[in-house]
Amino acid sequence: MANSPTLLKIEDLVLYFKTMRGPVQAVDHIDLDLKNNEAIVILGESGCGKSSLAKAILRLLPRNIDKYSGKVLLNGTDTMQYSDEEFRRKVRWRSISMVPQAAMNSLNPVLKVGDQVTEPFIIHTGASKTEAIAQAKKMFAHVGVPNSFLDRYAFELSGGMRQRSAIAMALVTMPDLIILDEPTSALDVLTQANIFNVLKTLKKDLEISFILITHDIATSSELADRVAVMYAGQIVEVCDATRFFDKPFHPYSIALMDSVPRLRQVKEPDFITGQPPSLINPPTGCRFKDRCHKRFEKCEEEPPAVTIENHIVKCWLYQ
Amino acid sequence: MDHIIDKNEKAEPFLQQDIRERGVLLSIRDLKIWFELRKFGFGHAGYVHAVDGVSFDLHNGESIAVVGESGCGKSTLMKGILGLHRPTEGEIFFRGESIGEMKSKEIKQYRSHIGYIQQDPYGAMAPFMSVQRILTEPLSINGIKDHQQIQDMVHKALEEVKVFPVEDYLNKFPHMLSGGQQQRIVIARSMILNPNFLVADEPVSMLDASVRVEILRLLRSLQESRNLAVIYITHDLSTVSYFSRRIFVMYAGQIVEKALVQDLLNNAGHPYTQALLTGTSDPDGANAHKLKEVPPGEPPNLINPPKGCRFHPRCPKIIRGLCEVEAPPEFEPEPEHSVACWLLR
Ligand SMILES: Nc1ncnc2c1ncn2[C@@H]1O[C@H](COP(=O)(O)OP(=O)(O)OP(=O)(O)O)[C@@H](O)[C@H]1O
Ligand SMILES: Nc1ncnc2c1ncn2[C@@H]1O[C@H](COP(=O)(O)OP(=O)(O)OP(=O)(O)O)[C@@H](O)[C@H]1O
Ligand SMILES: [Mg+2]
Ligand SMILES: [Mg+2]
Q1: Is the Cβ of A109 closer than 8 Å to some Cβ of chain B?
Q2: Nearest alpha carbon to residue B228 among B78, B13, B16
Q3: Fewest CB within 10 angstroms: A12, A144, B302, B340, which?
């Protein structure tokens, strides 16, 4: 995997929302790349822009767009140049599908699960209903939902089974990349562990790549090859998962790791004082500086992203 | 702004060694709370056995955690303790007095001794009420009318949850506050009548990791400074050791294991507890490279729970011919540690 080709390369991606009080800078000049069959985790506090980043990649936009720019290269081709029609035909579902935040609640309760799971396959590949059902059965087997559930209604399924069905739906068109937005945060420990087993197996057997969005740091380590930390609309650190969970660089990442309660460790978790800044008129310079113990004069200026042995960190301490 | 809790406040594990000498506050004996299911035209259609034979003692000033999966009956058990659901069977004694025998006026009086942080964060505070009104409401319900006394109590409650300066918050509405600040107001309200017993139903599950720690620290310092007895309900095992003396593990309406926190973490007896421990991750880059050995399946339906041990259909250690036939009694492998599992017979 270390040498496998780049699947997705995001350059200078921007997504601002228009509001009465000014633009919300939810995705603010983000660079990120992902190799084939790699899983990257996007970590960050509520409201830092994680879901907005996913929406910007998949062009799932609300009406109140203030600014949407940058490059999203998929296998070397910039999808931002596609018309909406081209994007829908070539990218969405075919190459990248998404399991949205709270997906288990987004299945229509009064439609049969089978009809919902097969729909994207029929629309995007032109397959017949019979072919689609055969494909859905295959995907149900991958995620561990009994085939008989295709005939059930979503409201009859438990949260865990609905979440698995939502993952099967994202899989049904056999995309290269699945974006999972908080796939298990509403689920129980054992259901969560079972779903992560499913994701690990899919990654190994079907060579799928993942972008996993979550604020649950401990569980994110169940899938991550790499970690990207987002703070106030920007990415402040990207590195290999083993290195990140062992020794993150950015003061925000360090504080975030220190706040994770651990089952098998006595050290008391700590919290980060203060609150994340508003994304309307965020502070100039480093956005974390008001909460940072390591703050110094330099922090009044915007820190550059420095790369130290494949470890990217946006902080003046490492300059 | 308002984050003034001393970070060095506490660093040692939570022991409460002499707690049992302080006497029993709450005693629960074989409690059952069933909900009747009705079908239109057919009448009775069975019961949801939400709490089905729960017994334990809680000591004055003791902090315990109840963990278990969604739907296992945690909130129902707490609502039973609060007198919001009447027991179908069994008894609840508060300082030796049976709640079942109390009249509704006495129940109201009893409830004012208990601080309650309810699970639903959106239902917890009415959006149209200011912080001032949210905090004043429990006082007026309990007949406190003196204006000055009310102001003093509101101020004291807000100071205790470290919301400073108090005046800045009194006229705010919930949507103007961050998740952590909202939860502080909820805690302030639960503490305003000076209870000596707190029931906290998933008080931090909707919050970010860092805010979660902040709120748990606050609850712990209140627990210690006021000598509160606490029942902390959660589905997240990783937070309990910082906060509780004992853990009760609940499965399908029953408590399957009770132990001191460290005994439970190091020496879990019930296969269900062991599965919960395996299922809980610590952040570690190695996790991504191995599958977790957790039982498949889901908790049973509580209308017709499985015969024998309720965990037997998922249990990797099932003893055929026994576990699916007869419900296990509680075994006590060590002091203050009980396990309802035939493996310990
Ligand atoms: N359509 C919109 N118009 C205006 N503001 C928006 C819109 N969508 C999102 N925002 C704001 O953008 C910011 C980032 O939101 P986003 O949903 O991306 O956060 P998130 O990191 O996914 O948070 P969470 O962990 O709570 O899901 C928030 O401040 C949010 O209120
Ligand atoms: N008023 C009621 N009428 C009928 N059934 C109920 C009622 N309240 C709860 N139940 C059922 O009782 C069972 C236990 O519910 P309870 O809310 O106590 O679970 P819980 O452990 O608190 O779950 P969670 O972790 O999701 O909060 C569930 O099957 C629930 O559907
Ligand atoms: Mg989100
Ligand atoms: Mg509950």
Answers
A1: no
A2: B16
A3: A12
A225 CB within 8 Å of a chain B CB = yes
Q: How many other CB atoms are found less than 10 A from the CB of residue B27? A: 17
Q: Can you tell me the distance from the alpha carbon of A255 to that of B3, in angstroms, rounded to the nearest whole number?
A: 15
When CB atoms are compared, the residue of A219, A271, A273 closest to B281 is: A219
Nearest CA-CA distance, residue B294 and chain A, Å:
7
Token digits for B48? 């949801």
Q: Closest-CA residue in chain B for A145?
A: B297
- Sorted by sequence, the CB contacts under 8 Å of residue A214 that are 6+ apart come out as A41, A42, A43, A50, A182, A183, A185, A220
In Å, how far is B206's CA from the nearest CA of chain A? 9
Phi, psi of A69 (to 5 degrees): -150, 170
Structural contact between residues A56 and A68, judged by C-beta atoms closer than 8 angstroms: yes
Check if B205 has its Cβ closer than 6 Å to any atom of ligand 2: no
Cβ of residue B277 closer than 8 Å to a chain A Cβ: yes
Q: In whole angstroms, give the CA distance from residue B93 to residue B29.
A: 8
Identify which of B25, B27, B112, B119 has the alpha carbon closest to the alpha carbon of residue B73.
B119
Whether B213 and A158 lie within 8 Å, measured CB to CB: no
Q: What is the C-alpha separation between B30 and B64, in angstroms, rounded? A: 18
3-state SS, residue B192: coil
Q: Give the pLDDT of chain B (345 residues) as one tens digit per residue.
A: 333 334 444 444 556 667 888 899 999 999 999 999 887 766 787 899 999 999 999 999 999 999 999 889 999 999 999 999 999 999 999 999 999 888 888 998 899 899 999 887 667 788 899 999 999 999 998 889 899 999 999 999 999 888 878 888 999 998 888 888 888 999 999 999 999 999 999 998 878 888 889 889 999 999 999 999 999 999 889 888 888 999 999 999 999 999 999 999 999 999 999 999 999 999 999 999 999 999 988 889 899 999 999 999 999 999 999 999 999 999 999 999 999 999 999
Q: Which is it for the CA torsion B133, B134, B135, B141, positive or negative?
A: positive
Of residues A197, A243, A274, nearest to B292 (C-beta): A197
Question: Measuring from each residue's beta carbon to the nearest atom of ligand 1, which residues come in under 6 Å?
Answer: A 17, 19, 24, 26, 44, 46-52, 62, 64, 101, 215, 279
Q: How far is the CA of A159 from the centre of ligand 2 (A)?
A: 14
Does B306 lie at the interface with A, CB-CB under 8 angstroms? no
Q: How far apart are the C-alpha atoms of B285 and B288, rounded to whole Å?
A: 6
Q: Which residue of B has its CA nearest to A198?
A: B291
Q: From CA B100, how far away is CA B83, in angstroms rounded?
A: 8
Dist CA A271 CA A255 (whole Å)? 7
A217, closest residue in chain B (CA to CA): B283
Please answer yes or no on whether A192 and B279 come within 8 Å at the CB atom: yes
| Residue B49 DSSP symbol | E
Give ipTM to 2 decimals. 0.89
**Alpha carbons B205 and B64: distance in angstroms, whole number:** 17
Q: List beta partners, residue A179.
A: A98, A211
